[in-house]
Every structure is written in structure tokens, then in C-alpha cells.
Amino acid sequence: MCGIYGIVSTSLSKGKILRRLEKMGGLLRHRGPDDKKENIFQVNRGWLGFGFVRLSILDLETGMQPITCPKDGSTIICNGQIYNYIELKPGVSGEDFISKGDIEVALHLYRRKGIDFLQELNGMYAGAIFDQPRNRFILFRDRFGIKPLYYTETDDCFAFSSEIKPLIAGSRLPLELNQAGLAAYFTYRYLPGEQTMFKNIKKLPPGSYLAFDLNSGAYAIKRYWEYKFDIDVPEISFTDAKEKFHTLLSDAVNIRLRSDVEVGALVSGGIDSSAVASMAADRKPNISLFTISFEEEKYNELLNVKKFLKANNSRFSSARLYMELCSRRALDQLPEIVRSIEEPISLGTILPTDQVCRLAGDRLKVVLTGEGADEIFGGYRKFLIEAAACRYHTLSSSRQKELDYTFPELKPYLAVRHKDPARRYIQSEILYSNDELKQLIGRDTADNSFPGDALPRLSGREHPLNTAIAFEIRARLPDYVILRLDKLSMRHSLETRTPFLDYRLAEFAATLPVGFKVNIDECREKFICSHAYTDFSVLDHETAFRKKQPFTIPLADWFAKPDTLPDFLQEIMLGSIIKQQGILNQEITREHMSKITACGIGPQTLVSEADRIFSIIIFTLWYNEFFC
Asked: What is the number of other CB atoms lying within 10 angstroms of the CB of residue 30?
């Protein structure tokens, strides 16, 4: 994992571009502390500069980038890993390789197949290729958007980067708040789609590429991959499905263990990270594991981690577990965390994520994680609710009563369940209503509709559960869940690898009957996962069928005692900084503050007053960092 950056300009001199590139690289050194390099190429209308900072993980001696093919001058830089490069390399035999790693394989694959080379890559990546023979360059991003890639255009250049701060420095873009994004952020807790909260800075969408014509200066963005569901589900028995799931996940883990440095694993107590750690330990018995605990018992899963390791002692007898306590003192890190993420993301788990990444990053460079399973296989409670809602009116009254008891939120959801899939998808997690938004933002109108560029491409014939999963994968996964993982792991120069986001496994999940993913009769999410883990001895039965606990933190417990919070938080919650910024209504903020309580709030709570205040805190810190 590394960082990339670049500039193309017809008006800037070579020297100015080089100086800008050097500054961009300096701001990315946390992503690549091991090495740094810039190359600049003369094109017929000006100059094109590529830059790269390296975190050395694979091909330690010859894997530095940019890599240029001497035959035609084609050049590549890429952040991330192409896991299946060994399998792809025979397809580009006959080339004179100057490295032994993965990225040069991708370059030669592009030279032979053009943009279709992206269909063959299995990995996490965000890269750029200077196609000298066609006088163009290509930006590309992996299918799920695991690796970020930002771009902007100004009067004197087009620039791109793995992060926003280098992009601002390299482009000299005057900063403006994207006012149109405020309503979406305070509705969804993040800004879905290609827009950011900075006006004129955009994200290249997942599964897309940008082709820039160096002759005309024009560029266009196209998608090369879309997550689609088979409308006519192919017949497959549950037994065969479990076997294929296990085969695909095993290979996904194995190819993500390819590294020339030590690979560890993050474990949270949930079944997904536990399964990944188990499969990795089969290959690497002395694996290092990292986890976080909480003082508040209802949020603490350390006991589950220890039970899991004890039940699977034969597999983990040589492993070592590193752990740290995440307390309210973690709030001290919020300004640094917000600075690193660069976009306002109101997700309480940024605190333990940052802490566990620091814990791991102090000891090694690469870890496996369980992210992606909940999105691909329907692991969230909202998917259970949606599946129950789909069947509710076809069930007997006695079965309806059972579901009402099991899911207290089901009847209220049925009463307001929206016909529009986009509205229905986020209905249970809306942070502020339209009326509340108007008061908070201080406008007569506030558009919180789901951005069109964040919508999945659906036929309209999909099962409602699959529709919900499609929304999850298209927007929340890349722009919320994975973005926080990438930015916080790289803050500590740590590469995180996600086996569940192997596209082969995801495409297989899309072909499954919905009952294999969410089983209402047993009230179980990720149904196939739990059964496959036990059938193939990946997990013990207790771990595999443990009731899911959302990965959340005790914000309500902490915020209910504001006098114990850091000074900067007390200033935001009780002082005048919000009024000074002039973006949000301070009186409305204080109203929500007065309603905070820890009573009745736990890991299963989707929206609390503490969550609302946290979104305001994150935005205020972010605005203060970049605009004040």
C-alpha cells in the first residue's frame, strides 16, 4: 500500500510541476514512509507528472514505482495490491520485466488488452497509467473503492491524489465548502457518491476509470464493473453453496497472505474477523492478532475474542494477541483522526479503529480484516428487518406476532416503509429529519435526497433485500466503512486487506437465494457464513452462531458526562465555536445536547442524541481544520 499523485498542465513549467509534486509527496509520507519518487513527461500540450510514496510490502528490492516500459514509454503508478499477479503473469510472458512484483504485471496487461485489463485484476487498487502511444493517461479504481482516489481541475492544471490535502497543495485550489452536501451529511452521516464536502474536489467512483486525452485536454469517466444480482437465481443446493463459499473465501485469504513482510489480523469478536484469522492461522500459525476492549461491559467483546481463541487453541497455540483498552481518553485523538480522514464521517468506530491500527502499525505493516462480509452477505439487522417486512403479510397471524416480538422495530417500519428503494434503504438510520435539518443548517430548504451518482444500477426486478444490499455496496461501503479503514490504517502506515471484498466471492453471493444470506425462520443474518464456518471447521459452533453485536462505542455513556470530556469537546458542545463558524445553528445543537442520556442506549441502538451530537462534533472539527 502506498500513495500516488500527479499533475497535468499546459501552462505550468516543468520546474513548477516538480515543486508541486514534491510538496504533494511530502504530505503523503505516512502512506509511504519507505521511499518516494517523481517522474515528469513532456506531452505535446505541456507536462505530465507522476509521483509515488512507498510502503514496502512486496518485492522489496525492485518494486519501486513509477514503472516505465522501455518499449513504448508506458508508465504506471498504483496504490494497493494486485493479489492475483502470479496467475496473471503467464498471460504477459515475453516481456522484459524489471521488477518481481504485482504492478508491472498490470502495466503489461494494459499494454496488451487496453482498458479491459481491469476485468482481470483481483485486488485493491487506485492507479494511473501514462499511455504514451495513445497520448492519454488513465486513472482507475478497484471494484469496491477500497483504495481512494481524488481529483480536481483548476485554471492551470488537472491533479489527482490518494488523499485530499496533497491534492489541495498540488492544485492550489481555493477551498470552498460544498454547501449542497450539508443536508446529505447530516442525514446519512457521510456524503455518498463522487462529491466531497470540498467544492470542486471529487472522488473517482468505485469500479470506474477516467480517460484523459492529452491532445484535447478532455476527459470522461466510465464504469467497468457494476454489482449485479441474477434475477433468475440459478439452482444450487445449500450444501453446494456452502462448499463454494468456503473454497472462494479460503482462496481470498490465501492470496491476501502474499507478502514479503509479516501479515497479522485484526479481530473484533465477530464471526467475520474470527473466520479470517482462523484461515490465516492455518497458513501462518504464529500470526499476530490485534483487538480493542471497552470498560463498558455491554460494548466489550474481549471475552468473546478470548473464548474464540481458547476454543480453537490448536490453531492459535503459537499466535500472539495484542490488546488495548479504548476509553473516553480516545476522544483526545479526534482532531488528529478528523485531519487524517479529511472528510466528515460521523462514525463512532473511528476511535477504536484508529487505536487498533496504531497498535498493529507499531509492530507490522500488513493485517487482514473482516470488513465487507456484512455488506456482501446481509449481516446488518436492517437486512433482517427488510427480509421480515417482505414476508410479513404472507404469514399467519401467529407467525406475525412472533416476528413482532423478535423485531420490535418491524411494525413501525412497516407503517412508513417507502416505495422508493433509495428512501427505504436509509429510512431506519436517518440522523435528522427534514424539519430538523432546516433548523440545524439554517436554510428554508435542505435537499437530503440520495445523490444520483451514488445509486446502484438496478433493473427493478431485484428482491428488496438484494436492492438494500446493492445500495450498501454502492455507497455506504466505499464512502463510509472502507474510507475510514483506509485513512486510519494509513495514518499509521498499515496496510489492511479485506478477503470478503474479493470480487469472486461477492459475485457468487449475488447469485444466491436471499434465504441463504438472511434466514427469517432462524432470525439469522449471514446464514450461509455461519453454517459454512462450522461445516469446514473454520470456527467452533459457539463462535459461528454467536448473536451479532454491532461494532459501536459507548458515546452516550461518555457524552452524558460532559465535564469529563476533553476541553475542545466541551468548547464545541457548550462554548461558542459553532456560532463563530456560522454554518450550523448553535441553539439547536444545545437542544440536542440537553437530551443526551445513556439510559436505554446500547450497541443495538441505531440513532441516539449522542449520535446526533457526534455528527456535529465531527463536522465542527473538520470545518475548523480546513477552513478556520
From this structure: 17
pLDDT tens digits, residue range 537-572? Answer: 999 999 999 988 777 888 888 988 888 899 999 999
What mean pLDDT value characterizes the chain?
A: 93
Q: What percent of the chain has pLDDT over 70?
A: 97
Bridge partners (DSSP) of residue 322 are 290
CB 364 within 8 A of CB 290: no
How many helices (H) and strands (E) the chain has is answered by 28, 17
DSSP 557-614: HHHT-GGGS-HHHHHHHHSSHHHHHTSS-HHHHHHHHHT---TT--TT-S--HHHHHH
**What would the mean pLDDT of 517-540 be, rounded to a whole number?**
96
Buried b (16+ CB within 10 A) or exposed e, 96-119: ebebbbbbbbbbbbbbeeeeebbe
Closest by CA position to 482, among listed 287, 347, 359: 347
Closest CA to 161 of 9, 346, 23: 23
Classify each residue of 426-461 as buried b or exposed e, where b means 16 or more C-beta atoms within 10 Å of its C-beta: bbbebbbeeebbbbbbeeeebebebbeebbbebeee
Chain segment 582-607, per-residue pLDDT in tens: 999 998 888 888 887 656 555 655 57
What pLDDT, on a 0 to 100 scale, did the predictor assign at position 592? 82
CA distance from start to end of the chain: 32
Angstrom distance (rounded) from CA 346 to CA 251:
34
Question: How far is Cα of residue 358 from the mean position of the Cα atoms in its chain?
Answer: 18
| Residue 145 pLDDT exceeds 90 | yes
Give the whole-angstrom CA distance, residue 57 versus residue 53: 13
Residues 407-420 as b/e (b if ≥16 CB within 10 A, e otherwise) read beebeebeeebeee
Residue 2 is a catalytic residue: yes
| Residues forming a β-bridge with 128 | 77, 139
Q: Residue 286, exposed/middle/buried by CB under 10 A (0-12, 13-18, 19+)?
A: exposed
pTM, entire model: 0.96
Give start and end residues of each alpha helix (H) in 60-198.
85-88, 103-113, 164-171, 182-188
Cell numbers 505535446 correspond to 44
Chain-centre distance for alpha carbon 609:
25
Kindly compute the dihedral angle of the four CA atoms of residues 405, 409, 415, 419, in this order, to the nearest 10 degrees: -120
What is the C-alpha separation between 140 and 21, in angstroms, rounded? Answer: 20
Q: Which of 78-87, 106-115, 409-418 has the lowest mean pLDDT?
A: 409-418
Q: Identify the top-confidence range among 337-351, 402-416, 420-434.
A: 337-351
Question: What letter represents residue 365's amino acid?
Answer: K
pLDDT at 604: 59
The rounded distance, in Å, linking the Cα atoms of 351 and 332 is: 10
State the average pLDDT over residues 165-189.
Answer: 95
Cα gap 102→247, rounded to integer Å: 23
Instruction: Please give the Cα distance from 68 to 128 (Å, whole number).
Output: 12
DSSP-assigned states of every residue in 494-526: -EEE-GGG-HHHHHHHHTS-HHHH-BTTTTBSS
Which cell is 441 given?
Answer: 443548517
Identify the active-site residue in 2, 157, 357, 529: 2
Assess whether pLDDT exceeds 70 at residue 1: no
